[in-house]
Amino acid sequence: MDTPQVTAPPCPPPPVPGDRAPSSGVIHVNFRHAAGYTVIGNHLAQHRGLSLTAIGLATHIQSLPAGVRIGIKRLAERFPESETRIAAALRELEAHGYLHRSRVRLADGRIVTRTVSYNQPGATAHSLTVPRPRTAPGKPAPRPTPTPAPASAPPPAPTSAPEPHPGPSTAVIPAPAPAPGVAPATPPASAPQPHPTSAARTTPPPPLPQPQKFTPELQRTATALLADLRRHAPGLTLSGSDVAALAPGVATWLERDAHPDAIRHTLTADLPNPLKHPARLLRHRITALLPPPLPGAAELTPPRHGVVITPLQNCDTCDRAFRAADPGRCRDCRDRPTKQAAPHRAA
Q1: Is residue 271 part of a domain?
Q2: Which of 137, 143, 142, 145 is nearest to 34 (CA)?
Q3: 314: containing domain
Q4: Cα-based distances in Å from 269 to 113, 205, 236, 258, 290
Q5: I need a surface site. Which of 58, 209, 258, 262 has the fewest CB within 10 A?
Q6: Are the beta carbons of 248 and 220 closer than 8 angstroms?
Q7: Are 228 and 261 in contact (CB under 8 A)?
């Protein structure tokens, strides 16, 4: 009777109190921490946009007491990850609001990096809690300074109740009725004036300049110039629809005798970094920096005040030069008969 049955299956381990063992997956064996723990939210531990390195680094930073240095080099000495991976994880935490780093100048002139860790990004101001100062193990925690209770004011001396006296009447006096046929005067309501910045934001951009004659030759040259911009500035890579939309503006520049090299230099100089919207930038520069048409010879001639210069004309009969407002025949040819007029050539 006391011989053990070796063929019987072993007894399963007792279940953990408070947990139900699932049929598959992870099984948690949880014990309540009494000291030396940090509360980490599931929004960080199960974040789908952060890498495991960033989640672990955020957990480590939140477990440190205030004032501990957490530079990239110190973290690389503490963990096996390289400085490049740690720097990338810090940038991830900054992008998702768990960390904020800023450069601060101290009173002695030194510039340091101030790091602020957020255990719950986006929390309101009234839900923030001030961390308690941590003490070394074995030392008693500092007792909070008791706040003295305010001294109770002495009870007021009993006074006799004042006799009731008639106060001002609070009855509502009705307004006099308006005269028949007269509309009641209403104060003019002041219309709200729009804010100048809001009006500026709603102002549509100026239209793209259009050439007077959009010939196939101008279209071909403008399209080739826009498509060739990516060779000089890789950020100005345009799609086919953007090239077709901006071609009339470049054709207007070419129509005003602008050299293609000058157009290319104007469109590719001093580009922002990073360049997010190349088509919008080119549209703005084509519209805002459009040169005026080249002046003619008459506009470039300096004016002479008080002197009227009569232009030179060639005689239709003798081809001799004479001054007149309109072309025609010279004075000699007008005086002699038409049949006897002979061409006069200068020797």
Answers
A1: yes
A2: 137
A3: 310-347
A4: 35, 22, 11, 16, 15
A5: 262
A6: no
A7: no
